[in-house]
Amino acid sequence: MALIVKKFGGSSVATPDKMQSIVQRVLKGMKEDDQVVLVVSAMGDTTDELVSLARQVTSKPYGREMDMLLSTGEQISIALMAMAFAEAGHKAVSFTGAQAGIVTSKAYNKGRILEINAERVKEALQEGNIVIVAGFQGMTDDGDITTLGRGGSDTTAVAVAGAINADACEIYTDVDGIYTSDPRVVPEARKMEEITYGEMLEMAKLGAGVMQPRAVEMGSRFNVPIHVRSTFSEIKGTMIQEGYSMEVKQYLIRGVAEDKNVAKVTILGVPNKPGYAYRIFAELADHNIDVDMIVQSVRVANEGVTDITFTVSRDDSALVRDVLAEIRDELSIEDILIDERMGKVSVVGAGMAGHPGIAASMFGIMSDNGINIEIISTSEISITCLIGEESVDKAVRAIHAHFFDKD
Ligand code: ADP
Ligand code: ASP
Ligand code: MG
User: Fold this and answer.
1) Where is the ACT domain (predicted)?
2) Does the beta carbon of 136 sit less than 6 angstroms from any atom of ligand 2?
3) Distance from the CA of 93 to the center of ligand 3, in angstroms?
4) Are the beta carbons of 216 and 197 closer than 8 angstroms?
5) Phi-psi region at 331: left, alpha or beta (left = phi > 0; alpha = psi -120 to 50)
6) What pLDDT, on the 0 to 100 scale, is given for residue 405?
């Protein structure tokens, strides 16, 4: 007997026809006593459409009501999938995130899964059902619906797999695995047979949207190997797991990631005294705003003030504007500038540690292509450049060609 969690993304469940082919595929692949949990996303572009509906009513970030709205997308999918299984002659039951026992923090739009009380899911499996869980959503302790951030169904799937101790977690999507770069941007990108949690987490954090970063984190924490593969073909995909099972070539660079959903915030003229940076970033943290790259520089001509620049997800820029406006006078800030047309390009690879030439090569490629680098940041296994959004694809292709085309 195998206990398997299979997650199907938005493009995989975009139409009733596609849902029916998933039903056929799942039933065909199931052995007599297998137990299957399906985690599904909202159909096609439903979540984008719901966001756009909200934007037609308000530009303000109403967290709770937004989650009430966004969670409906996945609810449509689970009900239709359960009916499609029943029509095909198999018992099935759908559960919202709350019904599946997914408890999250009270952070609307970016809830974190705190625990999963999986009794109901386990009982339904025991009763012979295929269990269909709504991805991307949960409930707070006090009964409010939350969502887990864009791409959050991946996290639901891996977390549920951890909670029920599944034998496997399969992420079915519209690509047949993890590539060295987004194949939509770099047609020459290569599919990987396997990648470690650490490298995949870095790729995902730096923008490789094929997996939500927290799903990879969960996989690592519960030691659930994740198989990313195609909904539309049978071929083996990519395993995300603890280490390499094969003797893979020692890659310096494992992948090139890009993120076009970046806003740069510059706070001009912050008094150069203890406590000011703390006040600003504590205020942002209180509003659950993830701050990424941070640069603070004291003005040469006036040591009394500093300028602070940082990046956030573009989705948070309206909230950042509001939060900073509240403290602007109190902190004697001169001006606040927000540039929403920024992007990041990153190289990722555990093998780059101790190879100083990688950074120089990357900056050289930017220079050859006339691309201005605004901020650079590094971790042990990545180097990231903040550049204008319009140059991101060009930079990714050039960097990929440099590191991958020669071998
Ligand atoms: P789903 O709706 O199934 O969750 P997503 O759109 O969230 O699918 O993720 C799949 C997409 O991720 C692919 O279509 C691809 O364009 C993009 N992607 C970005 N980086 C990578 C990468 N390194 N490897 C594979 N796909 C990637
Ligand atoms: N439907 C949500 C989104 O579009 C969650 C997901 O698909 O993973 O972000
Ligand atoms: Mg996704």
Assistant:
1) 265-341, 347-407
2) yes
3) 23
4) yes
5) alpha
6) 80
